Amino acid sequence: MNASFDVAHIWAQSDAVAHATALVLLAMSIASWTIIIGKTAGLLRLRRSMLGAVDSFWRAESREEALAAISAHDRSKVFTSVAADAFEAAQAYEGRRTGGIGAGVDASEFLGRTLQQSTVAAQARVEQGLTMLASVGATAPFVGLFGTVWGIYHALVGLSGQSAVVLDQVAGPVGEALIMTAAGLFVAIPAVLAYNAFSRANRLVLARLDGFANGLHAYLVAGVRLSQRVDDGGTPPRPQQAS
């Protein structure tokens, strides 16, 4: 059997459809690995700074100092954006509650809606890229399978018309076509594993973000201030009345 399975030989023996399929798989792989590397670095930065940022926020003596402290520690700006939106909403409510059509709006409801919208926006930033990973993980095996089917069809068409076909003439082209299936799995498996890992990590971050938003709501509405940071096990801090 003299068939060569190097990349140059396979590329030379393939047609335009197989070339396009291989390029699609390559683009999907590049996109998924770009997201994997970027999100890994981002999540590492976020997890390193998350507890310190929340802790410094609650230790500050005023709103201005709290916002400056969390902004200095939170390089991802996920928690900072929620705190900034909450303080802006509280200031707007305090300045406009005496007049206008919104004079009778409850402070808890107003701030709760603001925090909900801000948290949803922060969640969208945290989960950015997961849709692409899910799409790559779900479709790459089928793209590779299509390349295999097309490669086998192309090989059989090339052998048509011959009076005698030996195994060597079939095994080479079919083996080359099957490489497309392996390529599809090579692209899909890292994307699926990364999607699952990032989903779990994001759940932990979003749980802490939700707890931080609830703490902000209690502080701005009832004057209840959290004096201790959230520990690694997710135990909420003990509230104290703001002095």
TrEMBL record:
A GO biological process this protein is involved in?
A: protein import
Q: Which residues form the MotA/TolQ/ExbB proton channel domain?
A: 107-207
Q: Which residues cross the membrane?
A: 16-38, 133-157, 177-198
Q: Which UniProt keywords apply?
A: Cell inner membrane, Cell membrane, Membrane, Protein transport, Transmembrane, Transmembrane helix, Transport
Per the record, the major location class is: membrane
What are its GO cellular component terms?
Answer: plasma membrane
Task: Give the membrane topology, semicolon-separated if more than one.
Answer: Multi-pass membrane protein
Entries under InterPro entries matching the protein: ExbB/TolQ_transport (IPR050790), MotA_ExbB_proton_chnl (IPR002898)
- Where in the cell does this protein reside? Cell inner membrane; Membrane
Please, which domain of life does this record's source organism belong to?
A: Bacteria
Record text on subunit structure and interactions: The accessory proteins ExbB and ExbD seem to form a complex with TonB.
Family stated for the protein in its record:
Belongs to the exbB/tolQ family.
Protein's job: Involved in the TonB-dependent energy-dependent transport of various receptor-bound substrates. Protects ExbD from proteolytic degradation and functionally stabilizes TonB.
Task: Return the protein name.
Answer: Biopolymer transport protein ExbB
Q: What is the organism of origin for this protein?
A: Azoarcus taiwanensis
